[in-house]
Structures are given as C-alpha cells and as structure tokens.
Amino acid sequence: MSAPTTPTGAPLLRVVRGHPDPEELAALTAVLVAAAAATTPEPPPPAPAPRWARPGRATGFRGPRSWRTGPAGDHPPG
Fold first, then answer.
1. What is the 3-state secondary structure (H, E, C) of the chain?
2. What's the Rg (C-alpha) of the chain?
3. Among 27, 47, 50, 68, whose CB has the most other CB atoms within 10 angstroms?
4. Tell me: the pLDDT tens digits for 19-48?
5. pTM higher than 0.85 for the full model?
C-alpha cells in the first residue's frame, strides 16, 4: 500500500523524527481527519436593505450637530 499523495504527487504527511507505530499513525490520521471535517458555520448573509429606505440617506445619522456642517462632506471654514 502506498501513502496518499496530493495532486502534485507530494505525500500528504511526512514523519520528520522518530519511528511511529501503525497505531500512532492511525491515531494521528484520525485526529487530522476530524479536524478537517470540523467546519465553522458560515456567517449569516447580511440583512437586505429595507425597501422603504431612501437612497439619498444611505449614510444614516451624522450626529447631533450635523446641521452646522451642512451637506455631507461640506465643512465650514476654520
């Protein structure tokens, strides 16, 4: 039996030190397979924008003193 390989032909796992028994390799393989199978749940998709929202107010609330600065991006001199 040959060791599993990646699509490039390289082995999936390589023992760098020591001489593991077949039981130790089986335990390591089981842990790696379990870790690969454990997936994190995907975050929920963002909520759709309300259909009643006005497109011109996409920036939302600008602050309690926004009346002093005028339209978005228009700042008073000084």
1. CCCCECCCCCECCCCCCCCCCHHHHHHHHHHHHHHHHCCCCCCCCCCCCCCCCCHHHCCCCCCCCHHHHCCCCCCCCC
2. 29
3. 27
4. 999 899 899 989 988 888 887 778 888 888
5. no
